Amino acid sequence: MSSFLLLITVILATTFSVVTSCSASDRSALLAFKSALSEPYLGVFNTWSGDNCCLNWYGVSCDVSTARVTDINLRGESEDPIFEKAGRTGYMTGKISPEICKLDRLTNLVVADWKAISGEVPACITSLSSLRILDLIGNKISGKIPAHIGNLQRLTVLNLADNEITGEIPESIVNLASLKHLDLSNNRLTGAIPADFGKLGMLSRALLNRNQLSGSIPASIGNIYRLADLDLSANQLTGSIPVQLGKMPVLSTLNLDSNSLSGQINPNLLSNPGMGILNLSRNGFEGSIPDVFGPKTYFMALDLSYNNLKGRIPGSLSSAKYIGHLDLSHNHLCGSIPLGSPFDHLEAASFSYNDCLCGNPLKTC
Ligand SMILES: *[C@@H]1O[C@H](CO)[C@@H](O)[C@H](O)[C@H]1NC(C)=O
């Protein structure tokens, strides 16, 4: 009985005690993280001293009940007064210490836009099972994406854009069951997009543009029900656009420009009323532009320039509700430009460098 009471006392004591200081191991992990970096202009790390890393350490947050570190949020571009005071944006050199992997309750790791942090993404980061946001955009991080990145089952945001990351997109990435935003743009990734990329069922934005990705666009992408924004532009992708991409319910921005894609333009891509921005410029698309536009067509931008498109501009395009920006230049189109309100505001540049187009805004037929 007395041991039972003792147990109760211990449980109550642990439940209600106010943890006042951060865990010693979290504190030493943070100090190791700090010492591998150098930030000469703003002094973001000046507050990182003293025992309690949960109290007023710039960019650090803890869980109040456990006093374990949950967030590191260091952005080199922000509204914070320290930037105003210094009159400049952030700049940091050094690297991300693997010691960070000892912060095993970390949910958000944002070390973004510091321009010069180099080194690799520590492979051990894949052991941080609580991690929800990993945002290292805008640095000089090199090396590969950790092979076991797919272990991060809670990850919702993976942003490694604007770095110098090489190698292939790891196969395991398709196991990120919670991933909503993937941004790997402007790196040096090579190889193919994993064939089962479509397993990423929660994804709403996938930005893989400005890399050196090759191979074809996986048809499985068409299975990502929530995908609204897909940018694969400025890579070395080949093959045709999978028909599945024209049938996606919420896809509204599709940028495939500056690749080596070929084949005909799938009619569904143009007739899908949700599609607002479609850029297929600078590829090898051929055949004619499908005549499938209608009163529900609403394009902020439709760019089909620099392809091998032939035939006439479809008459149905003049029945579109709105076309903000249209570029059909640098193809082999011929015939008269349709009349109608979507065309009223367009300039000659939208139609230039074709074989034999005529009519307003070009010369009369
Ligand atoms: C489409 O992509 C091309 C080539 O990458 C680019 O120059 C153009 O500005 C883009 N069009 C629109 C409307 O953004």
Automatic annotation (TrEMBL):
The keyword Disulfide bond does not apply. It comes from the Eukaryota. Residues 126-266 form the Disease resistance R13L4/SHOC-2-like LRR domain. One of its GO terms (cellular component) is membrane. Residues 24-63 form the Leucine-rich repeat-containing N-terminal plant-type domain. Residues 1-21 form the signal peptide. Keywords: Glycoprotein, Leucine-rich repeat, Membrane, Repeat, Signal, Transmembrane, Transmembrane helix. InterPro entries: DNA_repair-toleration (IPR053211), Leu-rich_rpt (IPR001611), Leu-rich_rpt_typical-subtyp (IPR003591), LRR_dom_sf (IPR032675), LRR_N_plant-typ (IPR013210), LRR_R13L4/SHOC2-like (IPR055414). The keyword Heme does not apply. This is Leucine-rich repeat-containing N-terminal plant-type domain-containing protein. It comes from Crotalaria pallida (Smooth rattlebox).
